[in-house]
Each structure stands twice: as structure tokens, then as C-alpha cells.
Amino acid sequence: MEPSKEYLFKYKGFYFSVITSPEYVASLEDFEIKDSDVFLVTYPKSGTVWTQNILSLIVHEGHRNGTENVDNMERIPWLEYKSTDKDYANFPLPRIFASHLPYYLVPRDLRNKRGRVIYVTRNPKDVMVSYYHFSKFMSTVEEVPDFNIFMERFLAGKVLASSWMDHVAGWYSHAEDFNILFLTYEEMKKDLRSAVLKICNFLGRKLSEEELDSVVQQATFENMRKDPRANYENLPDDIAAKDKGSFLRKGTVGDWKNIMTVAQNERFDKELEEKIKTLPIKFMWDINDEM
Ligand code: PPS
């Protein structure tokens, strides 16, 4: 079954939410990159909001020490969903954008190694389960109440951001074209401090031990959940129904085991297991797995 046109449109083989337009997405090809720009790119539900907060905490002292009360989505806007009141050309540097774009639709200059990309992946079973719950409370995402049907849509790439496999494989196989840092959700979960350090090194930022501690502390699931700058609770009720879910839902590795049946797991593996082996990523499917 094709996804509803009420929610999605396809542009160059990739599904976008109707809250943007093909014209705007096409215009991003010429989006002017500044050398200090950072693009946080993910397939949905892979740790975007988490990494967005880490970046705000690293880059903005006022965010870190609590003297500034600016939502992360203001500081780090979504590239492909531009709100008309934002003048990106005059945004404070470094500009940071979040995006779910596939490698081939990002601004041309980014593909010529201007600016930096941070690409975060997560094991796709947890991605799918997180996505399923997300569809229940986001009015901009089509709700598919039956998990089995949702899984078939996910496996067929008939969801916002299309196929998980194509997205991840595309970015990894074109890594050479970009100035890029790859991270996984699971490594952040296992050792957040090391992941924060990797990001600092990649950005050429030196934080003191205290500053680093502060970033790590404020980026834990429990603390982010309470932080209105980071937890997306300021989204209007007609976009996110807060009584039905939240962006920060469980924040764990292996939640897929709580919902997928043995048969569903086998079906998933049949479709993706071999393809996943071609990726240069060792996924953790359970928090007790070795990295
Ligand atoms: S989105 O809609 O694409 O921007 O979603 P995204 O932010 O990529 O992914 C949401 C999942 O990330 C979890 N999350 C966290 N996990 C651990 N620690 C922290 N600090 C954190 N912040 C967000 C969030 O809970 C979603 O995963 P699930 O499994 O649904 O809980």
C-alpha cells in the first residue's frame, strides 16, 4: 500500500513530509555552505534530538550554563523544513542544521567537503519501534496502528525518509565525498563521554573537564526529558499530542524485543540481515552486546 499523499510526497525517490515542498527541497542543492557549518544527519528516530542537544551544549556556553533559554530547534533548525522567518544567511556561526536528507539531496558544496557532517545511526529494529510509537502522537506522520503493517511499510521504505537501509548505505558508501563523523546511538548510550569527546574533536572544540561533565550530565535521557529546551515539549498540541507520547520515550537499546514477535523478528531478519552485513557498522541489538 502506498503512503497517503495527505502526509508525504516523493522527490527524487525520497519521501518528504508535506510540511515542506518539492521546490524548497530542490533549492537546497544551491544552499550556500560556510566552512564552519555543521549538519547533523540521521534517518528518523536514530538519535537526532539527542545529538542536537549535545551540539547545543558543546557550542553554546549559555545553553550549557543555563543562562540562555533557547529551544534546540531554534538553535539547530531542520534544513529541509524551513520556517519562513529564519534568515539562515545571517545565523550566528557556527550554523548547525539537523536533517534527514539522503546523501544525494544535500547542498552541493557539502558534497565538496565544505562544512562538516555528523551522521548518527541506530540499530534498525529500535529505529522501527521508536518510529511506530512516534506515528501515534505526531499529527504530521501517518498513524499505522497495526505494528505488522507498520513494519511492512518500514521494510518497503514507504515511510517518511524512505528506506532505512538505503539511507544508511548511501551515507556510508559516499563517506569519501564528505567531511564526516559517524556515530551510533548505541555507542552514545554505552559511553556518552567518549562520544561527546569525539564530537568536540571533530568540531575542533576544546572543553574543560568541568564543561565536558556538564555536557554529559545534561545530555542524559533523564535530564533531557526534564529540559524544555531539549525535549520538544514546546511543539504545538496540534502537531504533537502530548497525551499520546513524547520525543523522549524510552531511550534504551533493545526495546524492539518488547514489541516484536518471534515471527516478526524472523521476517525482519529475512529482509535485512544480509544487507546489514554489508555495512561497515557493528550494531548492538541489546545493551549487553559488546561494541
Ligand atoms: S526524530 O523524530 O527523527 O528527530 O527522532 P530522533 O531524535 O532521531 O530519535 C528519537 C529517539 O531518540 C531517543 N533519545 C534518547 N535516547 C537516549 N538518551 C537521550 N538523551 C535521548 N534523547 C532522545 C528518544 O527517546 C527516541 O527513542 P525511543 O526508543 O522512542 O525512546
Q: Quick one: CATH class?
A: Alpha Beta
Strand order of the largest sheet: 4-3-5-6
Q: How many whole angstroms does the radius of gyration measure?
A: 18 Å
Beta-strand portion reads 5-15%
Shape: globular
Low-confidence stretches: none
Distance between the termini: 37 Å
The number of domains is 1
Sheet with most strands: 4 strands, parallel
Care to count the β-strands?
Answer: 6
Oligomer state equals single chain
Give the CATH superfamily: P-loop containing nucleotide triphosphate hydrolases
Examine the coordinates and then state which fold CATH places here, giving the name of the CATH topology: Rossmann fold
SSE pattern: EEHEHHHEHEHHHEHHHHH
Using the 3D structure, state the CATH architecture: 3-Layer(aba) Sandwich
Average pLDDT works out at 94
Class derived from helix and strand content: alpha/beta
Bound molecules: 3'-phosphate-adenosine-5'-phosphate sulfate
Question: What do you see in this structure?
Answer:
The chain has 291 residues and is of the alpha/beta class. The chain has one domain: Rossmann fold (3-Layer(aba) Sandwich), CATH 3.40.50. The protein is built from 13 helices and six strands. The strands form two sheets. It has a four-stranded parallel sheet, with helices on both faces. Helix 10 packs across helix 11. The radius of gyration is 18 Å and the shape is globular. The mean pLDDT is 94. The protein binds 3'-phosphate-adenosine-5'-phosphate sulfate. 3'-phosphate-adenosine-5'-phosphate sulfate binds next to helix 2, helix 6 and helix 12.
